[in-house]
Amino acid sequence: MSSITLAALIAVATAGFAITLQAPINAALGRNLGSTLGAASVSFFVGFSLLLALSFLRGEAGAFMRLAATPRWMLVGGALGAFYVWAALWSIPILGALTTASMLILGQMIAALAIDHFGLIGLPVREISLPRLAAAGLVAAGLVLSRF
């Protein structure tokens, strides 16, 4: 395994850990504020502020000048992220951390299978194979088991 592959795996595992912590933290914020939408808004504001500051500190603020020439569909990612944050913080008190995380992962795997199969958004086409379907099936089985 190459060092860049290992670094990517570690980064994604760390991000997975972070988003699993993010949902209950945001749910607690929502309870404190009395609003799940308010909590999601505050979460995005804090994240936006941090990313904006880092962009300036790293000398990458010039990237914002290219926004005018960016196709509008590419901005949908922010709306999808906002929906994720709200859905996770709303669901976690109802479903629990394990079931919420399992369902998120299953949803990601189903979408990823379709994205890979059709080569969407400029990604290379990757076949839907039996092992890849089995991986999603095992996550689905884990989701069922998480409810017991």
Automatic annotation (TrEMBL):
Spans through the membrane: 37-57, 73-95, 101-123, 130-146
Gene Ontology CC terms: plasma membrane
Keyword Transcription listed: no
Segments forming a coiled coil: none
Top-level taxon in the UniProt lineage: Bacteria
A Pfam family this chain is assigned to: DMT_YdcZ
UniProt keyword terms in alphabetical order: Membrane, Transmembrane, Transmembrane helix
InterPro entries: YdcZ
Listed name of the protein: DMT family transporter
Annotated organism of origin: Pontibaca salina
Source taxonomy: Bacteria, Pseudomonadati, Pseudomonadota, Alphaproteobacteria, Rhodobacterales
